[in-house]
Design a protein that fits this description.
Elements: E1 13-21, H1 23-26, E2 37-43, E3 45-46, E4 49-50, H2 63-69, H3 71-75, H4 77-83, E5 89-96, E6 102-104, H5 108-115, E7 122-129, E8 134-139, H6 145-153, E9 161-165, E10 171-174, E11 180-182, E12 186-193, E13 199-202, H7 218-224, E14 233-234, E15 244-248, E16 253-266, E17 273-286, E18 291-295, E19 299-302, E20 308-321
Antiparallel strand pairs: 1-2, 2-5, 3-4, 5-12, 6-13, 7-10, 7-12, 8-9, 8-11, 10-14, 15-16, 16-20, 17-18, 17-19, 17-20
């Protein structure tokens, strides 16, 4: 029997973290397991954390099984040609009650050689930020392995890193090799390559309840770091009922839609499209007048075979696809 595809949401995969909090529940209605919940993985094919459909007739079926049934209809012609039956992106919400570790991710070449994995290019969209919240992205001035190691040894690494204050709506694009950390008091949406490879280099000398510090990856990171100054913040327009370009890279394209009313969408079948609702409520209306309703905190995957639909409502949406 043919599988009829429609706009899909998946059961959140919730992750407790030493730095997590409760905003994923209070602001995004996620059923968190504890008051230290740091991440909600919204769409994932990472082994051991594979998403399962939460809505409609396909509820309970894994994303991998849907792709296996008809990869082109689900992923799109171009995506399938490039990645086969692999879903190449990972979508998350993060709640940082405390500072995350200072970390970075390897590029495709290193990740493939060392971990048989994709690298991890990612972007952040700031959804909420407490007063004086900040992130760390890259070095203040061009650095070197020697300078970096001296500061690491002296526990003064943050002194040579760039701190940036943040507010809702800010976007940061983090290429592989960029040292970064999400600061306390920030909730954000993260879009990244399908990879769970992180090199942690400094963890603020934290220990867990048993007095153990988390593992660091000093040696692995040395070759992977970009020691140049980076400009990660992205500026973009916010024209209502239009897809305003924010990030375009070889791994994903992200646009911001300030939706107020109705917007017609026509796709070409080359890629699936994902809508992350960061504010408000909206519906996806298809040609047979089938309507699917969503709200803030929902991450919606529109399979590539659905090429004509309307977005209706009052919401802020991130629109993500692969060019």
């Amino acid at each position: 029997m043919e599988t009829v595809l429609y706009p899909l949401v998946f059961k959140p995969i919730l992750k407790e973290r030493i730095w997590g909090g409760t905003k994923l529940k209070s602001q995004l209605n996620k059923e968190i397991p504890s008051s230290a919940t740091g991440e909600s993985w919204e769409i994932s094919t990472v082994p051991g954390a594979v998403s399962v459909v939460a809505n409609g007739d396909l509820a309970g079926i894994s994303i991998n099984d849907l792709i296996a049934k008809d990869a082109i209809a689900f992923l799109g012609k171009k995506v399938h040609a490039r990645y086969g039956a692999e879903f190449p992106l990972l979508f998350k919400f993060l709640d940082a009650k405390e500072d995350l570790s200072i970390q970075l991710h390897p590029n495709d070449e290193l990740a493939q050689k060392r971990h048989n994995s994709f690298g991890k290019t990612e972007m952040w969209y700031i959804m909420q930020a407490d007063l004086d919240a900040r992130i760390i992205v890259g070095f203040k001035e061009k650095s070197s392995p020697d300078e970096y190691l001296v500061h690491l040894e002296n526990k003064t690494l943050p002194k040579i890193l760039k701190e940036i204050p943040v507010k809702p709506g800010d976007v940061f694009f983090l290429e592989t090799g960029t040292i970064h950390a999400i600061g306390a008091g920030i909730m954000l949406a993260e879009i990244q390559q399908t990879s769970d490879i992180t090199y942690r280099i400094y963890d603020w000398d934290r220990v867990d309840d048993a007095g153990n510090s988390r593992e660091l990856h000093i040696d692995l990171a040395l070759e992977a770091i970009n020691y140049n100054v980076v400009n990660a913040k992205k500026r973009y327009q916010q024209k209502p009922n239009e897809s305003n370009g924010v990030v375009q890279c070889e791994y994903f394209t992200t646009k911001v839609i300030p939706l107020d009313g109705t917007m017609l969408c026509t796709k070409n079948g080359d890629s699936f499209t994902v809508y992350v609702c960061t504010e408000g409520e909206f519906s996806i209306v298809m040609d047979s007048l089938q309507s699917y309703s969503f709200r803030k905190g929902d991450t919606v995957l529109v399979p590539a075979s659905i090429t004509d639909f309307k977005l209706v409502g009052k919401a802020t949406l991130l629109e993500i696809y692969i060019s």
